[in-house]
Amino acid sequence: MLVLGLTTSTPQIGVALGDQSGLRAGWATVRGRHHAELITPAITDVCAAAGVAEREIGVVAVDTGPGLFTGLRVGVATAKAFAFALGIPVITESSLDLLAFGYRYVSRRVTATIDARRSELFVASYVAVPGGMQRVSEPHTATADELAAELQADGVPHLLVGNGAQRYAEAFAGNDRVEIADAAFPLASALVNLAHARAMREDWIRPEDVECTYLREPDAAINWETRGGRVGADGSTVE
Q1: How far is CA 207 from the centre of its chain?
Q2: Rounded to 5 degrees, what angle do the CA atoms 94, 11, 234 make?
Q3: 154-193 per-position pLDDT tens digit
Q4: DSSP string for residues in 121-139
Q5: How many Cβ atoms from other residues are within 10 Å of residue 156's Cβ?
Q6: Residues 217 and 148 in one domain
């Protein structure tokens, strides 16, 4: 089954296509806040590079967060649009799970981090198990200093992955049991790998059931509230 994978939860936008034979084509770029204008042309280019028509795609996979609010909405909206247009289901994956998946062969405990801005990180920890990674802490927000204190108290070797750890690397410099990996973003190729195994089990959902995992309100809503406004039930701001 041909899987289209979309990752938009961080500054990096990723698109990949793969099936039982492996990755067919992939593309990624870091272009600030240009997710909406780049994602659809990238899908067209990746399909062309793989030599397949969009109608051949059997399932769309998308990372649903936590991550950047606007990026998540763009990715989920695009995944839903393709799924509805092609009449195919959707597979969702946590962006933190995707980060950790690339380190399923390491012996250290893996802590995935995504820069949440406002001096915070989105965080979850994992241990390697046969066939993948097992989450040992639920996704949550923490400052770099709070996470550094958690790791210091934990007392076991950790590998930190993601752009959150890289941005606040100085907070972990005093712990010799903590190593920071080079990889910064969730990969669309990892998403395709994970999603294909689930697609073979028909472990998918309808496009209308796809939701983002935010963990906190969007920055725009928080900033508006600090100026005396309030946020409506639909996420809009009103005075």
Answers
A1: 18
A2: 65
A3: 889 999 999 999 999 999 998 999 999 998 899 999 999 9
A4: EEEEEEEEETTEEEESS--
A5: 10
A6: no
Domain boundary among 165, 180, 195: 180
31, burial (CB in 10 Å: exposed 0-12, middle 13-18, buried 19+): exposed
- Give tens-digit pLDDT for 191-230: 999 999 999 999 999 999 999 999 877 654 444 344 444 4
Q: By residue range, what is the domain housing residue 227?
A: 3-95+186-238
> Do 147 and 226 belong to one domain?
no
Amino acid residing at 182: D
pTM of the full predicted structure?
0.88
Question: What digits encode the pLDDT tens for the residues 26-36?
Answer: 999 998 778 99
Q: Over the range 45-60, which residues count as b (16 or more CB within 10 Å of their CB) and which as e? A: ebbeebebeeeebebb
Mean pLDDT of 35-58: 96
On whether both 109 and 171 belong to a single domain, the answer is yes
Q: Calculate the alpha carbon distances from 21 to 2, 3, 61, 192 in Å.
A: 10, 11, 17, 12
Pair (8, 91) in one structural domain: yes
